[in-house]
Amino acid sequence: MAVARSLRRTNPITIALAGLLAVGFLIFIFSSPSTAPINVPGARQLLKSKEAASHALSPPSLPFLKSNLKAGEEAPPPPVVHYHMNNVTTTADPIANRESILILTPLARFYQEYWDNLLALTYPHELISLGFIVPKGREGNAATAQLQERIKKTQAGTNKKRFASITILRQDEEPPLQSQAESERHAMSAQKERRAAMSRARNALLFTTLGPTTSWVLWLDSDIIETPPSLIQDLASYDKPIIVPNCFQRYYNKDKEAMDVRPYDFNSWIDSPTAQNLAAKMGPDDILLEGYAEIATYRSLMAYMADPRGDPKQIVSLDGVGGTALLVKADVHRDGAMFPAFPFYHLIETEGFAKMGKRLGWGSWGLPNYFVYHYNE
Amino acid sequence: MWKRQELYHHPYVRVTCKARVPSRQYIPPTISFIALRGRDVIGTPVVQLSSGLAPRGPFHASGELHPTSSSLFQVSTSWMLPLHASAAPKSKMNRHAYSNGHTGAYPLGGRGSFSIQPHKFQPRSQPALRRRRQLLIRLALVGSLLFAGVLLFFPSLRAAALPALSLGLFAGHEELQLETVRYYDLSNVQGTARGWEREERILLCAPLRDAAPHLPMFFSHLRNLTYPHHLIDLAFLIGDSKDNTLTLLSDLLAELQVDEQPGMAFGEISVLEKDFGQKVNQDVESRHGFAAQASRRKSMAQARNWLLSAALRPTHSWVYWRDVDVETAPFTILEDLMRHNKDVIVPNVWRPLPDWLGGEQPYDLNSWQESETALALADTLDEDAVIVEGYAEYATWRPHLAYLRDPYGDPDMEMEIDGVGGVSILAKAKVFRSGVHFPAFSFEKHAETEGFGKMAKRMKFSVVGLPHYTIWHLYEPSVDDIRHMEEMENERKAREAEEKAKQERLEKIQSQFDDTQGQWEKDRSDIESIKKKAQEEEEAVAEAKRQATAQQIAEKQAQDEAAYKAQKAQQVAGGKPVVGKQAAAGAAAGAGAAAAADAKVHDESGSKPRVEAKDGKGHIIDADDIPVVGGGRKTPKEDTL
């Protein structure tokens, strides 16, 4: 213990203070330039996937730092933010590549089961951004209130499994139908208008929340209440530009006196010559709908390709897709593929989307034996 | 002096000490409780001596403590004065003496560690912390060095480590500082005619590619915009640039944001870097070639869509598309276009031209009204064909916004259009929100901005052009123009060379003329001298005649005397002067004719170059006045960008 006499005689408090000072100097010296100038005006930044933005004016798919400005203090001008979109990948292994995903939901009604299912997703939540669009009106208000209540709990700062960011939009136009009852909703005459409004809602949600760092977009309807927890990884593993699982519905089968499943979404199909002939004879503003007895299209519906004992990895190429659950590479949307609110090749909304994707060179695929379940009203 | 007594470990303690006074001690002891660990031990407990002090007699002391559950403290008894050693009471004094009713809580019953032996001075026993001070200091030094080293080599850890050290007390955890939830009502961002009053945000989009030469001009336009800058968000997409567009843009933007002038800084600024791997060159010729149009328009559309989808936010009421190569535009263009309150609106786009091309020219031919011919044409084309305007290959007979311009027309006049040009488009954000975009495929036989106009029309949005509100696109000479300008330049040079040659010739001739003048003078002087000589000769002859006459007279006089002889002599002399006179006259006439002939020669050689010079000058003037070529040149057809 040969310690210098001076050191032995020094009061330990002095040494402690000196140590503190030394640490302070070290911090000063090593403080990296990337963190320091966050609020320096004119600073240049590079935002990568799931980093927090330093200013409130930032892509809604990213969280941002709260500004702790005092009253009367003027905020510095926003920084110049660079995004290397060449580095935004969409691969079969999204978790390993830290690919961020945007889950978009047109929220007509709030179902607790939907929210629970969402929270149960095993994809890293810090890579998930959520986007909701809620229609105007009383039902929308109720849904928003419920949603915000759940969000408050989920997004608390202490929650390790909170989502990267959540955006809620209130739609600017009234929904065309006052009631959303199931029977009324599917009345064929109302379909075109309803789905056009739905398209506009989807597009508004998509184009305002899609950020420069987003790799995937998952469309998930608010009435999808049961999916495999690994939904995102499973769908992404096929590395297809547009991929859709089979949407079924659980119901009480009175004949069997037991719970059973039945096909729900008929918008995923492979085109048929009959349908094409029908379309050729139609006027430019007519649309060809699926799942109605009035028009027999003889398209091959994915809903009827399901085989409960079949290979869940079976994959088929589709010409129309449904939007209840739909995984899309963000590049497809960025190229311009959207949900046409007008008859596009006599197709509308998600079916028109698949067609537009095809026109842009992106194919659609379906998984007949991989199921998600729709709420039963 | 201090004797370690006992360590107690209990939440609430009432301690009673019982000990014996040393034999020679008369001073009351000091009893203290020293906390070894834990914060809440009440400093010095109230110590009461419950019995009087007598040498070697027993005494009691008690005190109350409120330690925390983890406190560890010791009870000490001390006397002020040195005492001699006395081992005798030791065994008896080693009784622990305390009680607070929680007997079971004390693990030290019967250990007999309570001992008071203040018989002599003893060095204060060192607590562990003090005893191992050097070790601790060394450990701390090594630790901080390691820490510094880690921070030095792993900069990524700094962000995590530093706030915890420096601001940890004030800032809290970073997670708590992040805002993750946003709520927007889209009915607030519909876009109105007086957006600047309602603080409506505009997204200004500019796709860039090899645009470095135009950036300074573009930024001067940005600075001049009168719409409140903080309400304008800028978004740039840089793709496949081979020049320094990116660095230049970044520098200019940073400069713009720190400008000291208040209100100069813009809102959110996004620079998106994305290479699409386009093959088409960006120079004018390859950009505007017909064959390249369809694929070029599609990739341009793709770039525009990427830019828009990444930059459009729920806060935007308007979207303004602006090319960087606009040379002149009103500062109030945003307000001017917004005032019309249309869903999609474009101004007229012209470009200035050099005088020899006619001064100005319609530039953007993509803003047009649909025509029956074009619709019929569209039906004949296959699914992937793209009609591009301004090429002879597709004669569409559409009314173009550009050709309807009247420089003195009402700038507020509106015109319904179907296709729009992309140089300067102001659109309500709700148009883009509803899904209208720049088709990168053939949408109703159109792509990019024309397809955008078509799609907006399809979705029942109003699409309007302003024929008499003009902005001016930069004039970039096409390859033809450049060639032509080279020709003109060569011509000019040739003309200058010719002029110079003529000048030289003129000078030469001038100098030659001066020579002949001299010659003439010389000749004249020669002639004059000859004339003089002739005169002299004449005079001499005359003199001689006179002399001869005189001689004759003299001879006559002499011959008067001799009449025969004199008569004969007079006959000879009379013929002689006649001959001499004739010769002199002939000589003079010859000299005059020669001089006249000489002068005529001079006149001819002098007047001819003068005529030539006049001709030359006239030619130069004519060359300036008469357009050489290109005055009636067919103006090249161009489309935007």
Task: Describe the 3D structure.
The complex is a heterodimer of chains A (377) and B (641). Chain A has a single domain (95-374), classed as Spore Coat Polysaccharide Biosynthesis Protein SpsA, Chain A (Alpha-Beta Complex). Chain A has ten helices and 15 strands. Chain A has helices spanning 5-9, 12-30, 112-119, 138-154, 182-185, 188-209, 231-236, 273-281, 330-334, 349-359, and strands at residues 44-46, 64-65, 80-84, 100-106, 128-134, 165-170, 214-220, 224-226, 242-253, 258-263, 269-270, 300-301, 316-318, 325-329, 364-374. In chain A, the strands form three sheets. In chain A, strands 4, 5, 6, 7, 8, 9, 10, 13, 14 and 15 form a ten-stranded mixed beta sheet that branches. In chain A, strands 1-3 form a two-stranded parallel ribbon. In chain A, strands 11-12 form a two-stranded antiparallel sheet. In chain A, strand 9 (242-253) and strand 10 (258-263) form a beta hairpin. Chain A is elongated. Chain B has 641 residues and is of the alpha+beta class. Chain B folds into four domains: 7-125; 134-177; 186-476, Spore Coat Polysaccharide Biosynthesis Protein SpsA, Chain A, CATH 3.90.550; 484-625. In chain B, the strands form three sheets. In chain B, strands 9, 10, 11, 12, 13, 14, 15, 16, 17 and 18 form a ten-stranded mixed beta sheet that branches. A three-stranded antiparallel beta sheet of chain B has the order 1-6-3, with no helix packed on it. The interface between A and B is large, with 83 and 76 residues.
